[in-house]
Write a structure and sequence with these properties.
Layout (H helix, E strand, L loop, with lengths): L18 E15 L2 E8 L2 E7 L2 H8 L6 E10 L12 E12 L18 H6 L1 H4 L3 H23 L3 E2 L17 E3 L7 E3 L5 H9 L4 E10 L10 E11 L3 H19 L11 E4 H8 L12 E3 L1 H4 L11 E7 L6 H15 L4 E5 L5 E2 L10 H8 L6 E7 L1 H18 L11 E5 L4 E3 L6 E3 L10 H7 L9 E6 L2 E8 L4 H9 L5 H7 L1 H7 L6 E4 L3 H9 L29 H6 L11
Parallel strand pairs: 6-9, 11-17
Antiparallel strand pairs: 1-2, 1-4, 2-3, 4-5, 7-8, 9-10, 10-22, 12-13, 13-16, 14-15, 14-16, 17-20, 18-19, 20-21, 21-22
Pfam family, one: GAD
Family: Belongs to the class-II aminoacyl-tRNA synthetase family. Type 1 subfamily.
InterPro entries: Aa-tRNA-synt_II, aa-tRNA-synth_II, aa-tRNA-synth_II/BPL/LPL, Asp-tRNA-ligase_1, Asp-tRNA-ligase_1_N, Asp/Asn-tRNA-synth_IIb, AspRS_core, GAD-like_sf
């Protein structure tokens, strides 16, 4: 502790007259004269002003590079000019001695510590240990620690037991690329880092544990996004035995809102029960399976009213409309919004307005004049309404309308309640879908989900009509997690996989432990795993997930601070039986 008596955020007026020893980083010095200056000393807890009043001490402080760590011993006194913005703003310390504990070797820093967020991202990540000295940046990591601690306490209070699961495991088809680890003792074979503890937590249920949770590290070799970190992430992983969908909902509806309300930049969060929206209804009304319920606008079907209006892009297509009442946007703003829709969705957006005289104007209005009354009635239009439109296949029209809804809601005033956290459950996902690349029947979400209707549905229903007990937790338009009631019956499991072309032997080969465990009698069980990183990002009000991770990678999955990924020497490669082949010349 270097003998410090107090930290830099601790001293108050009642400490005046005391002799103290402080340690921390030498943030800066403001020189008034050769024997008067003001030093800011900073540590994890805050800052304290040091007043230098002798020429000798001024020379000593002036010789120290900023960001060196120092020890200052002196006497606390009341400040004549107080700073109400600082916790220690009523006092200052008059030093007797100063000692350098760790010298900063550089006079010039890569960026000013308190303005590090203004530096470019790669510089911040390369010097992340300096970036984290910025109190604003550090506060997000402190916040993360508090949230994780509260999540743990809340789960324990709900009788969940924290159990850690293996990091080295086998490759499993979770939907993303695995990170592979060569097995030194088993030439040609590889471990995989877990994309999620999915199989292990289900095996725990088969082992007789009733309620499991873990702040679980997960590893997926996927590209970065604003709300997704490449490489690794953490989730609040949980599973419940002898439980159904409603049991899972009840736990998270009790655990999450108080934490969001306590720590969030908004102090209002949905209370139980969260709104439940079937998947097909979500796509039809919101154009998204992760709807932002803060936006009041809804998607309407306009196919019957507009498909035969004579506008070529609508001919024979599904047409969706988003009506924004009492619209105040300008033509320039409308054009910008339409351009953004095309960039995001790859589809065009169209529009028209109903002016104050009840006439249809602007955009594609000239194609609608002969059907004016039918259009107004079908969309329920009133004077001053703005209508944005999408067209295409059902899926394309829905998704484009969802983008329109979000952009109109967030870009123009009056359509969004911003300062709150709105949760919802999206439920009843399709069990199967036709793969975009394969053109074959594939699992829509988690292959371990229980189909609604069980084996009877698998045998008698159109596979594309079968629903699963799958659910997503969504907050403010961001998917926090997917979960499901698990398929714990080996017979139903085999039948479910048969529909995607995998037989019983394939199931046994791909999931031997889980299949065999379920053959010994498994309880019905269900679970979910909200992303910790995304939760903290939402709570902190940050747009980038990298702001709430202590040592994040950049967008190219590189750790520029540590130099990872990196080459390894030939000896290490030989030990794990790997030979690097030079890429073929084009």
């Amino acid at each position: 502790m270097q003998g410090r008596t107090h930290n830099c955020g601790q001293l108050r007026l009642e400490n005046a007259g005391e002799k103290v020893t402080l340690v921390g980083w030498f943030e800066n010095i403001r020189k008034v004269s050769k024997n008067l200056g003001f030093v800011i000393l900073r540590d994890f807890y805050g800052t304290t002003q040091i007043v230098v009043e002798t020429e000798d001490l001024m020379e000593q402080f002036s010789a120290i590079n900023t960001e060196s760590t120092i020890e200052v011993t002196g006497t606390v006194r009341e400040r004549s000019s107080k700073n109400p913005k600082l916790a220690t703003g009523d006092i200052e310390v008059v030093p007797e001695t100063v000692k350098v504990l760790g010298k900063c070797q550089y006079q010039e820093l890569p960026f000013q510590i308190n303005r590090s967020k203004e530096a470019d991202e790669n510089t911040r990540l390369k010097y992340r240990y300096l970036d984290l000295r910025n109190p604003e940046v550090k506060s997000k990591i402190v916040l993360r620690s508090k949230i994780v601690a509260d999540l743990r306490s809340a789960m324990v209070a709900h009788d969940f037991m924290e159990i850690t699961t293996p990091i080295l495991t086998c490759s499993s088809p979770e939907g993303a690329r695995d990170y592979l680890v060569p097995a030194r003792k088993h030439p040609g074979k590889f471990y995989a880092l877990p994309q999620a503890p999915q199989q292990f937590k289900q095996l725990l249920m088969a082992s007789g544990f009733d309620r499991y949770f873990q702040i679980a590290p997960c590893f997926r070799d996927e590209d970065a996004r604003a709300d997704r970190s490449p490489g690794e992430f953490y989730q609040l992983d949980m599973e419940m035995a002898f439980a159904n969908q409603e049991d899972v909902f009840a736990v998270l509806e009790d655990v999450l809102p108080p934490i969001f309300a306590k720590y969030g930049i908004y102090h209002e969060a949905s209370t139980a029960p969260f709104k439940r929206i079937p998947y097909r209804e979500a796509m039809e009304k919101y154009g998204s399976d992760k709807p932002d319920l803060r936006i009041s606008l809804l998607v309407q079907d306009a196919t019957e009213a507009l498909a035969d209006c004579g506008f070529e892009p609508f001919a024979g297509k599904t047409v969706k409309a988003v009506v924004a009442p009492d619209f105040k946007g300008t033509r320039k703003q409308i054009d910008k919004m339409c351009a953004e829709v095309e960039v995001i969705s790859g589809q065009k957006a169209y529009w028209f307005k109903m002016d104050e005289n009840g006439e249809l104007a602007g955009g594609i209005a000239k194609f609608l004049q002969e059907k004016k009354d039918a259009v107004i009635e079908a969309l329920g239009l009133k004077n001053g309404d703005f209508v944005a439109l999408s067209a295409g296949t059902l899926g394309a029209a829905q998704k484009t309308a969802g983008v329109i809804r979000k952009l109109v809601g967030t870009s123009f005033d009056g359509y969004m309640k911003k300062e709150c956290y709105e949760f919802c459950w999206v439920v009843d996902f399709p069990m199967y879908e036709i793969g975009e690349e394969s053109g074959e029947l594939e699992f829509c979400h988690n292959p371990f989900s229980m189909p609604q209707g069980g084996v009877e549905a698998l045998e008698n229903q159109d596979p594309l009509e079968i629903l699963a007990y799958q659910y997503d937790l969504v907050c403010n338009g961001i998917e926090l997690s997917s979960g499901a009631v698990r398929n714990h019956d080996p017979e139903i499991m085999v039948k479910a996989f048969e529909l995607v072309g995998l037989g019983e032997e394939d199931v046994k080969a791909k999931f031997p432990a889980m299949y065999n465990a379920f053959c010994y009698g498994a309880p019905p069980h269900a679970g979910i795993a909200p992303g910790v990183d995304r939760m903290v990002m939402l709570i902190a009000g940050e747009d980038s997930i990298r702001e709430i991770i202590p040592f994040p990678m950049n967008k190219n999955a590189q750790d520029v601070m540590m130099g990872a990924p990196a080459e390894v020497d030939e000896k290490q490669l030989r030990e794990v039986h790997i030979k690097i082949s030079a890429p073929e010349k084009q």
